Amino acid sequence: MKEIDCTDAIFTRFINGDGDALRELLSLYGLKLVLFINRYVNNLSVAEELMEDTFCEIVLEPKRFRREATVKTYLFTIARNKAIDYVRREKKHSSLPIDEAENMLADELRLEERVIKDEQKRELLSAMKAIPEEYSSVLHLLYFEELSYAEIGLIMKKTVKQIGNLAHRARLSLKGELERRGFVYEDL
Amino acid sequence: MKTCEEWARDIEAKIESEKTKRKERNNMKSKYMKMTAVAACLVLVIGAAAVIPYVANRNESANLPETTVTVTGPAQTDSAIGGGENSMCKVHHNSYHSIPLELSTYAANKAGAEKVDEWFEEKWDMTNNPGVDICRTVGFNIIEFLRDFNITKEEFVEELTFLVKAEYDADVLYSEDEALIEEYFTDWEAREGDSSRIGNYATLTGELNIMYAEKMGIDIADAPRLPVSDIVLKLGMEREELEAFIKKNYDMVIENDPSSKQFDYDLDGLYGEDTDEKYSLEIDPEESVYERWVRLDALFCGME
């Protein structure tokens, strides 16, 4: 609760044009958002761009912020919308040259290491890339952002019950993927 | 990967750039609105049609719906005297201080584009005078417009279609009862009906036309006014994209006016099996461009 209040205050300062508040929000959520967006777009440069656009939208359309959402759910909601819009626009998947793709993969691993300290969780993250996008999004928000079903529902525009069902199917799917890779996760 | 500081600098630059773009776009739109009546007539002659109604908006928000004319003037008071930078009257509903495109086009056909343009120019100039009371002095309202262009009640009822009829009660407009008219335009939102929907639809169609012009690289002032269905079909907009566009617009409108309503848009028809027939892009030589966009927009609004 304390963290939310503090973020709220930073957010308000950010909306009012405080550059320091922007930097504080970026240090809190920048990398996390990039990682989350990357789940959809699979391109770190694009994910960074879209994360930046997320912050721009907040300043340019401040009235869209609904008080029932926390700053965190609001940020992830906009980020998800941006990612989905991007994917729709870029339906034709453009392939990257091999060396560029390798660099990006290395960047991605470094980013994951920075954001997720727990090695087991990183393994999870890697396996999540192989399951359907909607499943991986719900698990990402659940495990890595530690959001509640209600908060995830706000972000993904679904009811709590739908998120519950989705999370259940996602866990089964992830479990299958992990088993295929030779891991056993009792906690899932 | 960029550093946090680099992100922050990029974000600040993007915000500044977007604000500048929006400012330029708003300036362009204001100019565009001002030209509408003339453009509407000229393009009718050359086989296209122009845009959006004139609206002097009473809302103060900087994020006004795009159908508003922005007017620079002195600070606004609740007594509706004067006008802030982008608001003019807090007493009457927008529909009082606005002339729907369909009506201005009709007047231009009847009296000549120049006359209509002069009317707007004159009112426009007056509203730019500090301290001017748009309600009492300028006469920038639909009653004055009907009177100045001798548009009779019969013409109004018989010649004009849904965009005007759904918004206004002809009996009131032609009642010559000042108290009744005053009540009608001040108590607008308490009534049920299609009133807000028309204004909101004008916002939507205006935004779509602007987007179309931008995508096609056409100067907005030269762009023909197209019905929504034409834009959707020409750009190959997907249903989800259109729905998101509508939602975005109405989110904005509703913030400015919580009583806003919207039509039950014929999305199923526009994305159905008989779309090509129902919303055909083909031009019927028997039908004027003006008639065509009124017909198609009415169809899309479910008001055919």
Walk me through what this model shows:
The complex is a heterodimer of chains A (188) and B (304). Chain A is 76% helix and 0% strand. Chain A is mainly alpha-helical and 188 residues long. Chain A folds into 2 domains: 1-93, Orthogonal Bundle (Rna Polymerase Sigma Factor, Chain: A); 116-188, Winged helix-like DNA-binding domain superfamily/Winged helix DNA-binding domain (Arc Repressor Mutant, subunit A, Orthogonal Bundle), CATH 1.10.10. The mean pLDDT of chain A is 79. Chain B has one domain. In chain B, helix 2 (36-46) runs antiparallel to helix 4 (113-127) and helix 3 packs across helix 4. Chain B is globular, with a radius of gyration of 20 Å. Chain B has a two-stranded antiparallel sheet with strand order 1-2. Chain B starts with a helix and ends with a helix. Chain B has helices at residues 4-34, 36-46, 101-111, 113-127, 134-138, 142-148, 153-159, 162-165, 170-173, 178-186, 195-216, 228-235, 239-256, 267-270, 275-278, 289-300; strands at residues 54-55, 98-99. The A-B interface holds A 19, 22-23, 26-27, 30, 34, 44, 48, 51-53, 55-56, 59-61, 63-64, 85, 88, 107, 110-111 and B 1-2, 4-5, 7-8, 10-12, 14-15, 18-19, 22, 63, 238, 240-241, 244, 251, 255.
Would you kindly provide a brief summary of this structure?
The complex is a heterodimer of chains A (about 190) and B (about 300). Chain A is mainly alpha-helical and about 190 residues long.
Any chance you could write out the topology, listing elements then pairs?
The complex is a heterodimer of chains A (188) and B (304).
Chain A: H1 2-15, H2 19-41, H3 44-60, H4 71-89, H5 98-115, H6 119-128, H7 133-144, H8 149-156, H9 160-180
Helix pairs in contact in A: 1-2, 2-3, 2-4, 3-4, 4-8, 7-9, 8-9
Chain B: H1 4-34, H2 36-46, E1 54-55, E2 98-99, H3 101-111, H4 113-127, H5 134-138, H6 142-148, H7 153-159, H8 162-165, H9 170-173, H10 178-186, H11 195-216, H12 228-235, H13 239-256, H14 267-270, H15 275-278, H16 289-300
Antiparallel strand pairs in B: 1-2
Helix pairs in contact in B: 2-3, 2-4, 3-4, 11-13
